[in-house]
Amino acid sequence: MKRNKLDLLIFILLVGIGVFFVSTKKSRPQNITSKKITITASFYPLAFLAKRIGDEYVDVINLTPAGAEPHDFEPTTKDMATIEKSSLLIMNGMGVEMYEKKLNEQLAGSSVKIVLAGKEFAIQDIVKDGTKRKDPHVWVDPVLYGKMAQKIAGEMGKLDTAHASEYKKNANQLVEELNSLDRSYKQELASCTLHKIVTAHTAFGYLAHRYGFEQIGISGISPEEEPSPKELKLITDFVKKEGVNHILLEELAPRVWGETVAAETGAQVLVLNPLEGITPDEEKDGVNYISIQKKNIESLKIALQCK
Ligand SMILES: [Zn+2]
Predict the structure, then answer these.
(1) Owning domain of residue 169
(2) pTM for this one?
(3) Are 152 and 174 in contact (CB under 8 A)?
(4) What is the CA(154)–ligand 1 centre distance, in A?
(5) Residue 56 shares a structural domain with residue 175
(6) CA 71 – ligand 1 centroid, Å
(7) Is the per-residue pLDDT at 250 higher than 70?
(8) How far is the CA of 222 from the centre of ligand 1 (A)?
């Protein structure tokens, strides 16, 4: 009996050692493949997508600093070095990044893969001073933003095939949240008295088209474009004539022209966020694309006088 017990003990010990070796052997390749991929995004909504989709497998750098807005941002030499160390550079395209062409030239022949996440979805025209161009603000529409998410997930999956299914799963989860946001927009803006809004810059064309209203931007496609006195007069007259009671301004862009229109017409100022960047305080408080959109729905409900 004693002999049998000893045999059993040795047997258990050997099995234990075997399991230990097999498990150490198995864990080795995981350590090798666990290197994160570095992604640089040109501004906030693209960085948010990359982070949500890539989660633990990526390091995401946002080129536009928190509190700045992307239309007038230019990368520094230090930023260039950061981009060159990335596997993927995500830009929106269609002119948001004034430096797109320059970067394309500088990165030609490098190993950095460039993806223009918004380009193929930017189908609406915008006309200013008789010149027609494509409106780049696709990310403001939650449905189009979902399509951008799936495009980015596909590109990340090509770059890091080992985690392609995770990227797809994360993108699908985000799309579900965006679909829920889309339903809220439809519900909350279903019955409104007004169908026109006055905004700081013309960033809401896709949103307006999807939910059935019209935007009149005080500035043009970029919030830094100063309106002429004639344009300001036209907007002031429009506000009075159409019974618009609210001017929808931004936190990261100049407010002076909008405040002038508000002062001249007696309209109130509200915030409508074009989701182009977040302030350092917002970042600290965990504000993100989804929570900003929920606030935007509230502002639009007031401005459009919805029930
Ligand atoms: Zn913009």
Answers:
(1) 37-184
(2) 0.87
(3) no
(4) 26
(5) yes
(6) 6
(7) yes
(8) 5
